[in-house]
């Protein structure tokens, strides 16, 4: 039986596909732009299908051609695209997820693994999080994540579907688009430093953000899929909390010529978001945690980036 990865040609999907291929799994990637697959060496070992998750019939056709044991549903529009075109984002992020759950029920695919986001807790979130914590979205992206979590819960209860969602913090690693996401400055810092270009971060140096390395994020997705004990579940992930200044200093230790300065954005909405994530309970223990510390994350990221090994 095969494994379906929607949005599998993107950042997280490419890394996941490689891990599954290494485990000798048959992988089918369903993506609007399958040619952007980051793992060039893996392109011959996966089936690439061009399609839109908002098109239910296209998904049904794939399920008629293949028998799937699981779906990793990663296809989504990210900020700023979600905020610029909320109607399109709704079709992809919400209707697309509903379509995935529909085909999972229709074609007896019992496991649907879904990356949600810690942004569902809002700009004043303070970890550790639980399912009972107040969810207070402040963007279209985070509100759609809450919506799809609820839809997944309903499908799980109604059809005994094994929908498992994980709320990730900021995922960093080679292959991430530096222009996507609300909290994108960690990626932009590293990418510009590798290119030898100066970078001005639009945040205060003491802005804190939780990050997790892409390899750890992939491992969590795989652990959720393999778990025999979890039925419907939404789990929270805590990354390592670091300041923008700490990230900049860590980069300069590896690339001494890196030029990184700070100029906080004047956009009040952006500042509210970024200032809110500075709060953190140091004693907090989340359901899952990334294992790598900042120095290891930066060394691994920059090393692979220089070698173009995604």
SS summary, helix count: 10
N-end to C-end Cα span: 26 Å
What is the overall silhouette? Answer: globular
Strand content: 15-25%
Which series of helices and strands comes N to C? EHEEHEHHEHEEHEEHEEHEHEH
Helix content: 40-55%
How many strands?
13
The description of the largest β-sheet is: 8 strands, parallel
Per CATH, the architecture of the largest domain is 3-Layer(aba) Sandwich
Can you identify the CATH superfamily of the largest domain?
NAD(P)-binding Rossmann-like Domain
Assign the CATH topology of the largest domain.
Rossmann fold
Mean pLDDT: 86
Number of domains: 2
Radius of gyration: 19 Å
Strand-pairing-aware structural class = alpha/beta
How does this structure look, described?
The protein is an alpha/beta fold and 310 residues long. It has helices at residues 11-22, 56-65, 81-84, 86-106, 140-159, 185-195, 214-226, 244-254, 268-276, 294-307; strands at 2-6, 26-31, 47-50, 68-73, 111-117, 162-168, 170-172, 199-201, 208-213, 233-238, 240-243, 260-262, 288-289. The two termini are 26 Å apart.
Structure described in brief:
This protein has two domains: 2-170 and 212-238, NAD(P)-binding Rossmann-like Domain (Rossmann fold, 3-Layer(aba) Sandwich), CATH 3.40.50; 173-210 and 240-307, UDP-galactose 4-epimerase, domain 1, CATH 3.90.25. Helices cover 40% and strands 20% of the residues.
């Amino acid at each position: 039986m095969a494994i379906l990865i929607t949005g599998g040609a993107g950042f997280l999907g490419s890394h996941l596909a490689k891990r599954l291929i290494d485990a000798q799994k048959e992988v089918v990637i369903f993506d609007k732009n399958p040619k952007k697959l980051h793992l060039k060496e893996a392109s011959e070992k996966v089936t690439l299908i061009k399609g839109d998750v908002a098109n239910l019939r296209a998904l049904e056709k794939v399920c008629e051609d293949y028998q799937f044991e699981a779906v990793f549903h990663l296809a989504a529009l990210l900020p700023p695209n979600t905020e610029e075109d909320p109607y399109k984002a709704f079709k992809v992020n919400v209707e697309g997820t509903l379509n995935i759950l529909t085909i999972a029920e229709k074609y007896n695919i019992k496991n649907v693994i879904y990356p949600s986001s810690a942004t569902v807790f809002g700009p004043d979130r303070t970890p550790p999080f639980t399912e009972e914590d107040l969810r207070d979205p402040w963007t279209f992206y985070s509100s759609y994540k809450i919506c799809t979590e609820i839809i997944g819960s309903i499908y799980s209860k109604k059809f005994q579907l094994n929908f498992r969602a994980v709320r990730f913090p900021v995922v960093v690693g080679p292959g991430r688009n530096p222009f996507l996401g609300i909290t994108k400055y960690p990626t932009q810092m590293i990418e510009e430093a590798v290119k030898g270009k100066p970078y001005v971060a639009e945040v205060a140096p003491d802005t804190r953000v939780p990050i997790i390395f892409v390899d750890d994020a992939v491992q969590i997705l795989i652990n959720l899929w393999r778990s025999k004990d979890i039925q419907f579940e939404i789990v929270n992930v805590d990354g390592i909390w670091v300041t923008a200044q700490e990230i900049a200093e860590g980069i300069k230790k590896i690339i001494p010529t890196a030029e990184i300065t700070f100029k906080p954005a004047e956009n009040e909405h952006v500042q509210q978001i970024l200032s809110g994530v500075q709060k953190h309970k140091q004693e907090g223990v989340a359901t899952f945690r990334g294992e790598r510390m900042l120095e290891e994350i930066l060394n691994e990221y920059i090393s692979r980036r220089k070698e173009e090994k995604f």
